[in-house]
Sequence to fold (494 residues):
Amino acid sequence: MTGEPPAAGGSLAQILEERRRKAVLLSASGVRPWGVDFTPDHSCREAAGLAPPDVGAKGAEVAVAGRILGLRPSGGITFADIFDATGRLQLLASADGPNPALVQRLGEMDLGDIVGARGVLTRTRRGEPSLELSELSLLAKALRPPAGKHTGVVDTELRYRRRYLDLLTTPEHQVVFRQRSAVVSSLRRTLDGRGFLEVETPILQPIPGGGEARPFKTHHNSLGTDLYLRIALELYLKRLLVAGFERVYEVGRVFRNEGLSPRHNPEFTLLEAYQAYGNLASMMDLCEAMVAGAAAAAAEAGPVADSVRDLAPPFPRQSMTELVGARLGVDPLSLWARPGELAASAREAGATGSLPDTPGELLFAIYEELVEPTIWAPTFVTDYPVEVSPLARRSLDPRFCERFELVAQGRELANAFSELNDPVEQRRRLEDQARRRELGNPEVPPFDEDFVAALEHGMPPAGGIGLGVDRLVMLLVGAPSIRDAVLFPTLRPE
Fold:
């Protein structure tokens, strides 16, 4: 792959050489190819809407700016299509118009050039709203051509690697990212409307906690110390509950040094919110409100997936033991003291992955392999084993904790707890984690003494939730890969 779409009208090297030569000639003639100021007073869409209804009639004088993506010389007239963020407008320069010299000048422009145009709105014989030029300014000379205007960027890998070309030549691909922006705004509105305060916590952290993932490591030269890019937002937000903030949230990038897949990008956007005096029930209510609001916002901004009709709350609730029991045909609780028999049942049902020895971790492994991929309609999966939930409060059944995940189309969208605020229990669980790290698991974070010290000052009972923004957008717009919901995904080097 060359990293460029195919060039029309000659090789890419020839086109580059010719356009650079034009830029030099323009400079020599006193025309600046770049760095020219121009202030449009209308968008292309606004200008097209102001064109007079009658063919040949003259309307208002306007100034617009945009990129040339079409050129059509026709006798004594040159037509050009320019595009801005709102859409397309046709320019025309005529030998009979107010500035005949612009016929040649417009025709000498290249596809991709950005221009400022001033003139009078009119309508051509074909009924096309057009701007009859009186002034034309070159604002930025394009040294590289855009992709073909009819095909756009057709290579999938190139679409991700040169996203700007894809969005430039296929404006309808911009819709997903406008929907993404609408979704994030909606999530913020929901939280702000419920009295949550948006905050910012450190990206560079001495201990990357709040989850299990291999972190990215860097070094601070002045401090002479290693730091890590955060893998979650949780522990600093909980410190703010200790500090007296009762409802806080953050929308931010987190980083996990893991493989690439249709569901995983090493950096992704996570929303986490914490509510003092909340619990699992209040987090379910908040989750339903956020998802329903996001679905409505996405639908207002563009077409959405058929699955959006399933997002009307309330979402069904099912415990992990019920789901695994239904899949295996046995009651996991009855085999809790005999994990070997439960593992054998999982193998008979088709499990091929590694199965741990401890009952809680075994139940979770079976659920992740055999059950989660089959959950299609949005569902709250509840009652997670304590062994896989070190930051959540225990249930009345001490083998489990007060935790749910919102799962849809076979993937986790949100994860929520009644938060553990017992510093003694929290210390014990984190020490257990640290021992797993010492045994060679690089995804387990080091023990965070400062976080436990914060809990020892007293954290109110609370509910907390984390929601994957990228995966939510994927669900709403029907994107098959996280790369379709992230503007600039991480890719292997060319």
